[in-house]
Fold each of these.
Amino acid sequence: MEQKVERVLQPQKNYDYEKIAASPEFKSLIRKKNKFLLPVTIFFLLFYFSLPLLTSFSTVLNKPAVGDISWVWVLALAQFIMTWTLCMVYVKKANGFDADAESIVNRHNDTKGSDRP
Amino acid sequence: MSMIGLFFFVAIVGLTLYVTYLASKRTNSASEFYTAGGGLTGWQNGIAIAGDYLSAASFLGIAGAIALNGFDGFFYSIGYLVAYLVVLYIVAEPLRNLGKYTLADMITARFNQQKIRGAAAISTLTIVLFYMIAQLVGAGALIQLLLGIDYWVAVLLVGIMMTTYVLWGGMAATSWVQIIKAVLLMIGTVLISFLVLLKFDFNILKMFTDMKSVTPAGEAYLNPGVKYTNGLDTMSMMIALVLGTAGLPHILMRFFTVKDAQTARSSVVYATWIVGIFYILTIFLGFGAAAFVGSEKIVAANAAGNMAAPLLAQALGGDLLMSFVSAVAFATILAVVAGLVLSGASAFAHDIYGQIIKKGNVTEKEQMNAARFASIGVSVFSIILALGAQTMNVAFLVSLAFCIAASANLPVIIYTIYWKRFNTAGALSAMITGLVTALVLVALSPNIWSPEGTAILTGTALFPLTNPAIISVPAGFIAGYIGSIVSAKADARKYAEVAVKANTGLK
């Protein structure tokens, strides 16, 4: 059984989210994240849909690649390898983002908004 | 049933009831009930996600589909796996940072309105119900075959077990049932794959060469096109598979069982490895069944091919392995339906009763009672529907659940996290359009209508595709866009809050 973890319910703090969102370090984190997430997401979706597109509207993948294994199996296996690779790449990248996020949190932890209800 | 078969079943029932008993001692608050107190570690949640995800449709369905249709069956494996990149890259961490118990919590973190919560709860309940009926009907038919008991007894048995886990053990018990099941499923799958490879002298090239001559499809077996001949329909199905996972409520709920975004991330990584290895091995299950059981015998046992894996186990390892694999299939079904009951109950008790009817003014005790009553309600309702749906072809219910998840939930999730201009009107129109489009198009599809009377109703289908995702997913996104653009301006301050919380975990 997992350990009993008591989660302390903290009272909702009134951060000045607009100020944090407008800060240069937050903007730079978002820019860094988008620069990584957007192209990679577009890439893996295109790569994924290339398989059913090629099998549905052409027969190029039916040609043998190795022995009696046709290219369609090779491209299918490539999808698995891509998934695992991008999974590990994401973790590596995200660990970097964590450091940035943490420093933003620390910097603003005492700054409370005054106009929040 | 043989003595050894009985032993495996009793062992699984006993073990899962024991963890439920352990979990029941600490399940005394709403947070414990819905999220196991948020105290699961990355690997625990990762294995549990795999256990929640690899349903009987995956284990029995894909093995059968590959056995009968060759490469076309493997499409499912690819789509179900790549879907994890969508979960990891787009949804998991912001969801963990913004939500509490349910998907509706996450959306209402930005739009705190009852109608938004209501719409999200209804789409959750719709998906859960379709998915659950599919699992229960499949489970009933399977257990009927495996144990030789009546269909209704089988459905009741599964129904009572799933209600027991959830009612007494909540999310902690459900998670551990899923972990046990995932471990057993991997052991069974690796074992069978090893035996299949042994038969082929560990020569993959030889296996592929042999497969060209052992099935009725001949050489075509190794190439796409045995089953899927309509390119648009294939594309549509692949859209539903890759985008649906990130909108499935019982999978999303698992991210609330960990303490922070980092743990959510590491659990997706564990899940992706386990799920990926499993789906690779489905090739050996499918090929093995086609080669050593034969498609005639597979179809004779079950027209959809669902008995391929148990029959393969019998062919390779006799009654002992068959009993083990049957017990694993039983555990697989239990783990998935328990997760479904829990996510259905959370939408009902937390969203509709607690937040909409009682407006959040509920005591801890009232929340727990509501959660337990909702669990019983969801269980009983789906058991009744499943008893009446015995003769229904249920394969399309699972793909419909994925399609609704991709059409009604995913657009809202993505817009809520990433689009500043998104607003209440956009959220409502995206959810309603996605849900209604998917339901209506399926109601008009060849799943329901067949001129020869092989579907539920006799007649010509007005919509030609079996899976409507290629229309309904863009419809959800476009409706969310138009709804936002034509209505009042978005609340920029609220979006700043959501963006900061989603990206930093600040609470």
Note: Residues 1-11, 112-117 of chain A have pLDDT under 50 and may be disordered.
Amino acid sequence: MSAIKHVVITAAGIGSRLGMNIPKCLVPVANKCIIDYQLALLEDIEDVRIVVGFMREEVILHVKKIRPDAIFVCNHQYATTTTLQSLFLGVKRLKEAVLIIDGDVIPEAVSFKNFLQYCKHHTAPLTTICRAATSDAVYAVADPTDDQNILNIMQFRRHPATPFEWPGISFIQPETIKNEKTFIYQRLEHQLPLPAYIIKCWEVDTPEDLLRVNREANDD
Amino acid sequence: MKGKIAYCFDLDGTVTLQEILPKIAQEVDLFEEIQLLTEATLKGIIPFEKSFRLRCKLFSDIPITKVQKIISHVVLDADITNFIATHLKQCFIITGNLDIWVAPLAQQLGCQFYTSKAEHQDNKFIRLSQILNKGEAVRSIRENFDYIITIGDSMNDVPMFEEADIGIAYAGVHNPVGSLLDMSHYVVTNGKGLCQLLNTL
């Protein structure tokens, strides 16, 4: 069993689909920013890296209050690069397996902690899967396994929809990530079939997602 | 990274948890004047060289040993101090501050210092003989190292970052200037985060 040493949160983008003119990690959901939920779940991981770009000073000032030892990785080309390219900068020079999280997703605490436990006992690459809910999802075609918590992802696709989507949380070897102008799930396609832990989470890509997530957070 | 790495630290507000010159000013009743000058300098409104000459002039009547005594009480970041102690031959302090003033810190930290230089006589500062160009300091360090990592927070660190392979903006004491952020690979907000990062480079 080995502890997860590194986590990289990608939070450099403009979030143009949401269109709020603040980085998605600072979007409030039930009076807390998305990144606050993430940092609370990651407090046991010693090396927290956040890739920043759009409104970097605001993100840094906010995180400094919660996690003063976080390391901010600068993506100065955030306006013209993809999340995969931000992640490439984030994992650069790391030598051990790293947990990666999109800056726009709130994992539900219990299932996420179970996933972290699972990572400690299994080798990377591992990923996560959740019930499809967002309006612009990366869907996953997945087969059941002997473990009821795990599905095997056979394919990622934008269309047609499947019951499951990929929430942007994985545990991978850093060398998996290349500096290519594509998306993270397209890098993971090289590793299919990929074991995926079933988690619950809320992702905010569009104004409709934010309305739904806020409604569900208030219901909870 | 493969090869020999040099770590080049700014001193004021990076290794020290307080700015040094305002601390001296406090002791000699020039705090507000120096504070204004320091703020304007950190923001890049007044060029470092002009501001530093002015600050030296304001302190020129204070006996050097008195300045040294004040400086020896400046609080240092424990994590960074520890990192330097365990990498003595690879760590360098690159400071625009005066050799005659920061001597106690050089002794305390034990690594090599690149500083501005002053002429002195009878325990008194006479005049500035050389203002350090941080870029030149890094160029001379590069002769013996394969990679240069620089850590700093203000305008006068820009030439040092220009010469480096990796630039780390330090936001532990105050917010780094925008032009330095624009050329930084990483930003950290305390000594623990900085050392965590340095240990993975």
Note: The radius of gyration of chain B is 16 Å.
